[in-house]
Amino acid sequence: MAKKTIEKTNEKITIAADKIKASNNLVIFTGAGISTESGIPDYRSQGGIWDKFQPVYFDEFMSSKKARIKYWEQRLDMEKSLSVSKPNKGHKSIAKLHEMGKLKALITQNIDGLHEASGIPAKKIIELHGNTRRVRCMSCSKLISWEETQKMIDAGEKAPECSCGGYFKPDTVSFGQAMPVEETRRAVELSTNSDVFIVVGSTLLVQPAALMPEYAKTAGAFLVIINLSETPYDTKCDVLIRGKAGDVLKNIVNQVISD
């Protein structure tokens, strides 16, 4: 049985590789499952940040300094894993597809910045939930780096504020905060126009991000799902591969390169 499973997985990898080679509009969609292999916890799972902390909703952040201080304490806890994380073979495999000229766009639910760190240019990445390595003022929209913010925190600012009086917040989508309009629009457009759409490491449960494979499939794209656990699209996709993101992507890309 184990041998048959391996053979079937290899067959699926070959099919995915062949589709990528023939593709003109390859779009890859990633979730937390690709970054857990870089040591970043899946924050919604057991042992993740929401297992340890009560989430601070956006309206709480904006209305209460106590809530902002709590939010920043949680962000500092995240930094323990973020500060040492590096792109893994999954990120690097997608970056290789970019180098080969095969990647149209990368849509991600992740906020860790590891796709850009792997070598994919920012203009090709749609960050649906933002990027925690950037920090934005909620009043004047000024952007500063995490390093600048860290200096403010180290100097004693428990909830950093902008010189305009606004509240600094990581440039990510918090609970109760609206999705970024332009990024969502671009993601829908790219998904709809894709000919091959590959989902990597996402349970496809968080909306509206989880609708992207639906847009792709409905428009006629070849849908591939690479994930360790079940998703709502397992019976709708063309190829389903149960496996670690890094291993599967590396094997797929090696086949794309070899022929």
From TrEMBL:
Q: What is this protein called?
A: protein acetyllysine N-acetyltransferase
Q: Where does Zn(2+) bind?
A: C137, C140, C162, C164
Recorded hits in PROSITE patterns, A to Z, give: SIRTUIN
Against NCBIfam families, the record matches this protein to: PRK00481.1-3
Q: What class of enzyme is it?
A: transferase
Keyword Hydrolase: yes or no? yes
Its keywords, alphabetically, are: Hydrolase, Metal-binding, NAD, Transferase, Zinc
* Record bears the keyword Lyase: no
Which InterPro entries does this chain map to?
Answer: DHS-like_NAD/FAD-binding_dom, NAD-dep_sirtuin_deacylases, Sirtuin, Sirtuin_cat_small_dom_sf, Ssirtuin_cat_dom
Where in the numbering of this chain does the Deacetylase sirtuin-type domain appear? 6-259
| EC number of this enzyme | 2.3.1.286
Pfam families found in the cross-reference section: SIR2 (PF02146)
The protein's organism comes out as Desulfobacula toluolica (strain DSM 7467 / Tol2)
GO MF term list: histone deacetylase activity, NAD-dependent; hydrolase activity; metal ion binding; NAD+ binding
Active site per database record? H129
